Amino acid sequence: MSARMGAETALSGADTPERGVLLLWMIFTGLSIFAVFLLWRYGLIHLMVASDRTYISSLIAALYVITCGHCFWRTRAIAREGEVARGCRAVLSAPDGAKALNADARNLPGGLVTDHIRSLVTKAKAQAAGRIDQTLLLRTLADRLRGSNGFGAFVSDTLMKLGLLGTIVGFIIMLAPIATLDAADKAAMKSSMGVMSDGMAVAMYTTLAGLVGSILVRIQYYMLDAATQRVFSDAVMLTETHVTPALEHHLGTPP
Prior knowledge:
This protein is an all-alpha fold. It has one domain. The chain contains 10 helices and no strands. The longest helix has 66 residues, at 186-251. The two termini are 30 Å apart. The model is unreliable at 1-17 (pLDDT under 50). Belongs to the exbB/tolQ family. Its main location: membrane. One of its GO terms (cellular component) is plasma membrane. The chain crosses the membrane at residues 21-42, 54-73, 162-180, 200-221. Residues 142-231 form the MotA/TolQ/ExbB proton channel domain.
């Protein structure tokens, strides 16, 4: 009972620090939305959409919005795992915290960190004596915490390549009239200049959209990866200082 109450207290008191990564993402996204509003207010977004006949810049914007939703989902998951790690630390660092391990860690808050602790308890029960090596289990925990974070690097690279594709298409549109250009025909010259201007607009707007989108995605997932690494480091410190010593003591391993 006391262990469970300690976990609930730790989780309620950990809302502010552990949800910091989620708050940081919301601040960053809020600033991005404000910037988009200003661009829309001054007609720049409408100009980009109207000038890009290939709709590559619109595709980049749609892919960026989808990626932001994925990053928000992953950020919430990591924030929750950070709270779970703090709750586990509060329970296991209590004077009778080792008793929580005897009950297969049922009193610990649910999460990936708790699953790792339960795996350690199961491994300790399976071996008769000796030190508990959690190297392989930590690798599994790192992979599970990382989850689909690699999607951000994939999307960032894709946005950059879409911008490059738009640049190439724009230059093709711009240079296409040159082959049939007649300097003596003023009407054809005027029409060709308009087509060349449209091609240059496609090249510039798609390049700009791809670069900006790639940079913003990189920033979001950098913050997410940093938060994931902090949670993993907390899990390593927790298990090395509280879990494995208690389990090894239970097995009768000499210090």
